[in-house]
Amino acid sequence: MFATNASRGLPRHRSRYPAERYTRWAMRGLVGGLVVALLWLVVAFHLRGQWMFALLFLVLAAGLAVTFTRRRLMSHRYVFPALAGMGVFVIFPLLYTVGISFSNYSSTNLLGEERVRAQFLARTYQAEGQAFDFRPFRRGETVRLFLEAEDGRALISAPLATAEAGEPLALDPAAAPPAGEPLGMREVIARRDRLQDLVLTTPDGVELRMAGLRSFAPLVPRYRENPDGSLTDLRDGHSLIPDRDTGFFVTEAGERLTPGWPVAVGSDNYARVLFDEDVRGPFLQIFVWTFAFAGLTVVFTLAVGFVLAVLLQWDQLRGKGLYRTLLILPYAVPAFISILIFKGMFNQHYGEINLILEGLFGIRPEWFTDPWLARTMLLIVNTWLGYPYMLLLCMGLIQSIPRDLFEASAVDGGGPLTNMAKITLPLILRPLTPLLIAAFAFNFNNFVLITLLTGGSPDIIGASTPAGTTDLLVSYTYRIAFQDAGQNFGLAAAIATLIFLLVAALSWLNLRLSKVEV
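Structure for Maltose/maltodextrin transport system permease protein, as requested:
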């Protein structure tokens, strides 16, 4: 019998192999370092007010520490990286998007309330008082500013090199410009950042700041914070009241001032999609087109792929290998390259397609300006891109059909069309159904095709959001979030949530049809 660690007097948890022990120590050190790094991120995001990211990294740190310190969870250590990746890159973005959909998060409501308040308090204005034109003079390595007012008063600064960061630079009365070389506008522009940081103090204690490339003037804070959280405009004495229902500072007249801060708005974004006519009209039009585009793409690609697959199974056809290679070749070309080539071919003025149509029939279709022609163009291009996939699927399924069925059909007098309608299509349609649903879901979110070929154009007239007649829901969401002037992330997140629910329903249907236990 082999002696155990206990019989040799060794602790049971120690290994006989030093390399294994050192590896264990290294892994513990690595895990400890990762936990410390994650906790540092928790503190950093918490201090910046990003509590959702802080909670994410706190959960990751806790899961990492528990999984790699509990011996009973040893088997889970191998799947923890995959679960962590799914949580960070799938679950968290989904929850974050859903959370944004219940807020007014946008380009005008982007910062936190404290940062918005700090921006208002940092604003200045030129107080009533005389501005000074300035000219820099250089003598050797010394640069001074000579300031001159309209009433003839002249001041000269101490050397700029003596000014420390954040401290004012004294000005003294001067009768004439100092000796030295006057610097031109190019030198002023080159020193603009340095000049903007300067605070000049006149002999009577007035602070001057740079008000332009040619002048210094008394600049004072525009707003003052009050104990109740409101701000007072020092120019006219009016108050700005923080409206925490809308996320803006509001004037006494009810005017909202930007920037604002994100606040919870409940289901307002979903209500806009369902009940606001300016949003609902384009949304429903794009919604119907999205389903039509995905459905027609599946039908057309399946029809072309199925017919070609049946023809390639014809016994009398010679050169099947060559035809098969040529027909599948579009599948090997990156989609974005094919899309850009088709975009040039469909060009309304110089494209090859319009040149051919004009030469044969005397017509020049407006592929990119007419809504129905633009949609037709999209279906044509997407059918070209998608039929090789259906061709491969149909070829594989057709080859799995027993030849005895075709021989029996031939005995009964069945021809090629009968075999295709009565034998081939029914036998391949059932196993093909889950793949067709997957293809439908893919084309439902076919962002690349829309963006590269039409960009969603032509636009829907009268829409309050950037919406085009060829937009899909996913491209419509992108345009609201990143191309609209207001960049309404909350509304875009609400539409993205609805898209997720639709795709999730399609995935569930796909699993049901595939007879997979959920």
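Residues 18-78 form one domain.
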